[in-house]
Structures are given as C-alpha cells and as structure tokens.
Model the fold of this input.
Amino acid sequence: MSSSASPKSGKTPGTSIFLPPPTPGQCPSVVFSTAAQPLPGQPSTSHPTSTPSKMADINIDPEGDITLAVPHTLEGSTIKAIAYFRVNSQILCIASPVFRAMLSKTSSFKEATSLANRDPKSDPTEVQLLDDNPKALAIILRAIHLQSDWVPDSLTTEQLYQVAVVCDKYDMRQSLEHWLRNWIPQRESEASTNPHKWLFISIAFARKQILRDVSRSIILSYTPARGLFGSTVFDSHVPQFYVDEIRKRRETAIQSILAQVDRLLYEYGAPITPTPFVFGANDQLKCQLMSHKTELCDTFMLGHLIKEFKRIGAYPASATFTENSVNAIKNLLTSLKFPDEIILQKPIQCCKTPQFQQIGSLSSLAASSQPSAIKCLNCNTIKQEPPNHASCSPKKRLIAGVDHIIVKIQGLGYREGPGKRGANELRPPAAGTDLWNCITYKDKVGIKEKSQH
Done:
C-alpha cells in the first residue's frame, strides 16, 4: 500500500479524519500560530498570502467543502488575526436559514455559485465572515457538526452572550437548543445583576420568562440620562422593538405616578361645597380624625404637599424628577417629610402659667385617634389635649398608589424577528406532540397514483 497522502482528504492512509476528543483539562478553544502553518495533526488549507500576523486553522470537517474566514483582533491586544474554519456547507444550510440563503443550490449569491462550480479535489470555497467572535463561532460549529466532546458543558454569562450574538446573526437557536437547556439554567440567576447582557440573551435564545423578568427590571431601573448600569445606550444587538417598548412602558409608569401627584393635590385643593342630602361638608374633608375633622387640616396638608413636591421636583414636574428611574421616583416620594406633631387648635389656657401633664383619655372607650386628657399642675384643671393631625398625612395613601402602578408593570413578551425563517424550514412541534410516534404513513398505492397525475 502506498504511503502517500490521499488526494481527497490530504491525510495519510489509515489516519482518522475526525477530530479526537480533548485531553483532560484541555480547553477546546481556537489556537493561533505565528505563521501561516497548519496545526499539528491537521491538514493544511490554502489561504491568501496577505494574512494577518496570527492565524489559526480549525478543521472541524477535514473534508469540508467550505472554509469560513473570520478576521478579528486578539482579545486584550491590537494584534490582527484570522481564524479559518473548514466545515460542511450542507450542515451549515441545515442548521442556519441565513447560511441556507447564502449557500444553497438555488441561491444567487456569489458564494453559492462558487461552491456549485467547485472541483471536489480543489481547495474549499472561502467565505469571509466579518465581526464574528471566533471562539463563539467555534463552539457553535462544533455543536452542529456533532463534535460533542469539544463543546463545553458550561459557559460564563459573557461567553453565553457572545454565542448569542453569533447565534442570532445566523438564526441558529433551534440547532443549539439541546445545549441551551444546559447552559442557560446554570447562569440565569446572574440575570438580575447583568440585565443588559441577559436582555439580549433571552431574546436571542427565546427564553420568554427570563425576558419578562429582565425587561421588567430594566423598565424599573433604566434612566435615559445615566443609562443602565453605566451604559447610556441599549445593547446594539437588541432589536429596536424591544428598546422602544421598554422606554414606552417606563414613560407610561412615570406619567401614571405624576397623575397620582396631581390627583392628590386636586383632592386637597378642591373647594368644600355643602350638598343636599349629605350629612355635611365634613364628609368631603380628607382629615382622618373622625370626631375632630377640620378644613384647616386639609389646608395644611395641601400646603405641605406642594412644598415637599417642589423640593423633590414632582410639582411642577421637572426634568430632574422625570429623568429618574421608576424605582428612584418611588424612593423620592417615600422621602416626603411630614411633622410628627401637627396641632391646629389654639393652646389651652387655664391659668397664667399652665404646666400640663398627660393623664390618659377622657373616655375608656376612646379610639386610638382620640386625644388624650391633660391636667394642669398649677390649677388642677383637666382638659382634652388638642388633637394631633400627623396621622392625617396622605403619604401612605400616595405610596400605596405608586406601589399599585409598579405592580401592574409587566415585562415584555417574546416576539419572533421577521424575515429569517424560510417557508420550507422545519417548525417546532406543537405542545404535547408525541415525539416518539411522529412518523406519518400514507397509502403506497395512493402515493403512486398521485405521482402519475
């Protein structure tokens, strides 16, 4: 038997053309060499002479008919590099509607024409992919080529994000679903501390519950001026629909809160007008002391509300107030200050030098809001202490209304991106489909008769 290499595979007879599993502790990453030379044990591939200073040959399918060239800059440096992935075009077309549109036999793209006219014994057709992360692409290509030993069991949030970017670009989520069911549960607890990354991850991988939770968190914490966690803009990969909807729901919530502020001021500022068949004008008052209701209490609360709202910028509504996040606006309203003691009646005068001591209530059946009895230590006069209207503060009612608005805020639902899926693409099965008994048989005679027409 001749010892020369096979002209088709470039491998010595008897040598496996399949990638061996990694050794224990070996990282299945992209390795770059300083010269345009193949890695040990891998066949060479012809590349243009004008290559960057670093390059890597990754033969995922050593008999593949296409090479994906990914130029980029090495992480943490300014060194230009390029990674070459030799793969199978048919697998790419099955795994990705985008690659199918580019490389299929019916495609009019120049890459498809070049591939169709390629001599099987010639070098693979080269397709350049710009702006792709080679490490993320390597993981995806190894996964769809069924090289499971070279696909990591877990990814960090950043790595998952990079895979999501490439996956979304080529619409390959369905091809990675098996791996996503393992990768995502390991990291989804980090979504609350890294929402800007997880917003895109949840969209790219169609994780509906994560998307609802993360988008709601962003609606509550996002501010146009300061952005989200120091970022003044949304991730550029997030579809504009989601960005617009987040901003819209945030603005709607803030407008609802401002309406609560205006409504409260209107309630306290509305004139008291006695109405027939009503027990009295006191029924229109907001004062909470049932046996000591007074319009003076409402007047005080109105003035104090206006003062406090002006202090935090809520009335009139200023940009410094409305540009806050929803959570920050609630915190500002929670910071409204009301006196602990609000005495609206004149001081009790029983003698020239009164000295009062609290001795309890005048009635053992008095409610908790009933003023206490006081005794003058000089003249022994016992009188009722002037009522304290501090409990009439509308702050609790205001915050309860704001809480109700926040509770009703919903996260975003998943929306499929238009224009990616082809008419002939296999759709996911309906819920409850018996995936074992999923082969549908037809009458053989009927098929023949049908084919004759």
Observations:
- The chain is about 35% helix and 10% strand.
- Residues 1-17, 35-46, 362-369, 419-424 have pLDDT under 50 and may be disordered.
- The radius of gyration is 36 Å.
- The beta strands are 54-59, 66-73, 80-87, 125-128, 356-360, 373-376, 382-384.
